[in-house]
């Protein structure tokens, strides 16, 4: 059984985590047309848990006050990037320069805080913004 067949089976069996199921379904569709992605998946022996963990790890890295809002396509992009950049099973790619990563994280934090202030100004009393907190992702495990 190939890793892609294992992924297909895992997606079909996934009942408790709709986010994980969507990521797996997207990857299967993408692998049908993207041979580089399919080859990387097979060569590295990856699985659905790895793809989901990549999305969760990236959300945690970008989180501000425990939350990071992202759309489905961005989550799929996190997974695809991690699959293509992973050197071997279960090992995330090394960051080029930790100082750059810290600067980028600080800049993202400032941008996110600015967006949150603008959103807060524009909200009517009693309305709530929607964000997926990392706790929500953890509860899907």
Biggest sheet overview: none
Distance between the termini: 25 Å
| Radius of gyration of CA atoms, rounded to a whole number | 17 Å
SSE order: HHHHHHH
Task: Chart the SSEs and their pairings.
Blueprint: H1 3-13, H2 18-33, H3 35-44, H4 48-62, H5 72-85, H6 98-122, H7 134-139
Helix pairs in contact: 1-2, 2-3, 2-4, 4-5
Q: Can you tell me about this structure?
A:
- The chain is mostly helical and 141 residues long.
- It has a domain at 1-91.
- It is 69% helix and 0% strand.
- The protein is built from seven helices and no strands.
- It has helices at 3-13, 18-33, 35-44, 48-62, 72-85, 98-122, 134-139.
- Helix 2 crosses helix 3 (35-44).
- The longest helix is centred in the last third of the chain and has 25 residues, at 98-122.
- Residues 93-98 and 123-132 have low confidence and may be disordered.
Compose a concise summary of this entry.
With 141 residues, the chain is mostly helical. It is 69% helix and 0% strand. It is elongated.
Spell out the key features of this protein:
mainly alpha; 7 helices; 141 residues; 0% strand; single chain
């Amino acid at each position: 059984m190939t890793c892609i067949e294992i992924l297909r089976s895992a997606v079909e069996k996934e009942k408790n985590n709709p986010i994980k199921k969507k990521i797996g379904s997207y990857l299967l569709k993408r692998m049908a047309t993207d041979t580089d992605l399919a080859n990387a998946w097979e060569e590295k022996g990856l699985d659905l848990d790895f793809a989901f963990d990549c999305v969760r790890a990236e959300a945690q890295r970008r989180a501000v006050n425990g939350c990071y809002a992202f759309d489905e396509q961005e989550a799929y992009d996190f997974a695809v990037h991690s699959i293509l950049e992973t050197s071997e099973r279960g090992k995330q790619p090394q960051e080029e320069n930790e100082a750059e990563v810290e600067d980028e994280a600080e800049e993202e934090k400032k941008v996110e805080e600015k967006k949150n202030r603008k959103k807060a100004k524009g909200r009517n009393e009693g309305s709530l913004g929607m964000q997926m907190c990392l706790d929500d992702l953890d509860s899907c495990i």
